[in-house]
């Protein structure tokens, strides 16, 4: 579960920062986003003004934090990092906003998880570069306006749909990050193996790439686990067979499905006859939070054509039955 979890934990963060592309030109894939963003940044630099606020949406591990760092680097401006859950009270946000320097880039990860009062303060800050500090309580409370330096907000969310419209509307540029295709992940792996001085022949890279759930973070993580295997069991060269043996050992299957993905599909097929079944029922069946199933497992299963979200609930596709080696019931799929 840890191996394929899209979130980075502990030691991994240090390795990740070493592997992060630093400039837009080094950033692999997401062609459209890259091109749009480079226009936004270049025109801001020419005008000598901070660019519009940027919102990035997409699954964990697709490069949102990396892009935020790149935005700051391209603008040659400092970057301040925080996250929605850390902004519990409006005061938490005010403390950050009031100390921003002119042109600074403020990155708020998981912006959909910000508390309501902070969110409302952010509206005004984004629009007018001003916040109202409320002093006192009840009828005697007064709002003291405070000017803040013009800054650029970069927000990231795994669930754009959860963002209130007034917040979403205040972003001048919205970037939708997609899963990466196998070739792009091969490029990510080539770059990482160079940085880590690993011997990664093309077929080995291809094998890891196609099992990486379309996600650079997972590709980099699998690369390190395959490297361990190659170094302990053989001469360190990551051939296709070595990659495949190592990934089987870590329970990453040929399509890149991990244990959670297979648990979700398995429950959908075996317990609910392929659906439709509601998200929360499905989550209980695999012993996970609905949000984990929805954010971590489902987007990839949908993209692989294994699962469909319908108004009546989650439904398995014909490929899902095939993938798990099961026979669909006769009434399914006409
Ligand atoms: P997110 O913020 O979307 O969860 P991150 O920006 O933290 O994802 O990216 C996770 C890791 O994946 C980074 O450490 C980086 O090394 C790698 N990565 C992400 N996108 C790319 C890319 N386009 N090219 C190369 N490496 C990438």
UniProtKB/TrEMBL annotation:
Residues noted as binding DNA in the record, renumbered to the chain: 309, 314
Catalyzed reactions per annotation: ATP + H2O = ADP + phosphate + H(+)
UniProt-listed InterPro entries: AAA+_ATPase, AAA_lid_4, DNA_helicase_Holl-junc_RuvB, P-loop_NTPase, RuvB-like_N, RuvB_wg_C, WH-like_DNA-bd_sf, WH_DNA-bd_sf
Region (Head domain (RuvB-H)): 254-334
Renumbered residue ranges of the record's region Small ATPAse domain (RuvB-S): 181-251
Cellular compartment(s): Cytoplasm
Domains: entry comment: Has 3 domains, the large (RuvB-L) and small ATPase (RuvB-S) domains and the C-terminal head (RuvB-H) domain. The head domain binds DNA, while the ATPase domains jointly bind ATP, ADP or are empty depending on the state of the subunit in the translocation cycle. During a single DNA translocation step the structure of each domain remains the same, but their relative positions change.
Assembly notes: Homohexamer. Forms an RuvA(8)-RuvB(12)-Holliday junction (HJ) complex. HJ DNA is sandwiched between 2 RuvA tetramers; dsDNA enters through RuvA and exits via RuvB. An RuvB hexamer assembles on each DNA strand where it exits the tetramer. Each RuvB hexamer is contacted by two RuvA subunits (via domain III) on 2 adjacent RuvB subunits; this complex drives branch migration. In the full resolvosome a probable DNA-RuvA(4)-RuvB(12)-RuvC(2) complex forms which resolves the HJ.
Record's protein name: Holliday junction branch migration complex subunit RuvB
């Amino acid at each position: 579960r840890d191996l394929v979890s899209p979130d980075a934990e502990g030691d991994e963060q240090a390795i990740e920062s070493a592997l992060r592309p630093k400039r837009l030109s080094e950033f692999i894939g997401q062609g459209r986003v890259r091109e749009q963003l480079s226009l936004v940044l270049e025109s801001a630099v020419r005008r000598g003004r901070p660019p519009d606020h940027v919102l990035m949406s997409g699954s964990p591990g697709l490069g949102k934090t990396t892009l935020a760092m790149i935005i700051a680097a391209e603008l040659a401006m400092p970057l301040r990092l925080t996250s929605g859950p850390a902004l519990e009270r409006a005061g938490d946000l005010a403390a950050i906003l009031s100390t921003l320097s002119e042109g600074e880039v403020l990155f708020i990860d998981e912006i959909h998880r910000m508390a309501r009062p902070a969110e409302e303060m952010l509206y005004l800050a984004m629009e007018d570069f001003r916040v109202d500090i409320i002093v006192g309580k009840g009828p005697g409370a007064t709002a003291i306006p405070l000017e803040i330096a013009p800054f650029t907000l970069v927000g990231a969310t795994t669930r754009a749909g959860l963002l209130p419209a007034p917040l979403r509307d205040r972003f001048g540029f919205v970037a939708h990050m997609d899963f990466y295709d196998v070739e792009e992940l091969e490029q990510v792996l080539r770059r990482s193996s160079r940085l880590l001085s690993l011997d990664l022949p093309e077929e080995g890279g291809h094998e890891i790439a196609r099992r990486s759930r379309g996600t650079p973070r997972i590709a980099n993580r699998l690369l390190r686990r395959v490297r361990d295997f190659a170094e302990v069991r053989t001469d360190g060269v990551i051939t296709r067979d070595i990659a495949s043996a190592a990934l089987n050992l870590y329970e990453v299957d040929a399509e890149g499905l991990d244990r959670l993905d297979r648990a979700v599909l398995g429950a959908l097929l075996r317990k609910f006859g392929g659906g439709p079944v509601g998200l929360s029922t499905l989550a209980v069946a695999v012993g996970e939070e609905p949000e984990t199933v929805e954010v971590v497992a489902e987007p990839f299963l949908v993209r692989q054509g294994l699962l469909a979200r319908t108004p009546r609930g989650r439904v398995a596709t014909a490929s899902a039955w095939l993938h798990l080696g099961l026979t669909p019931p006769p009434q399914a799929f006409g």
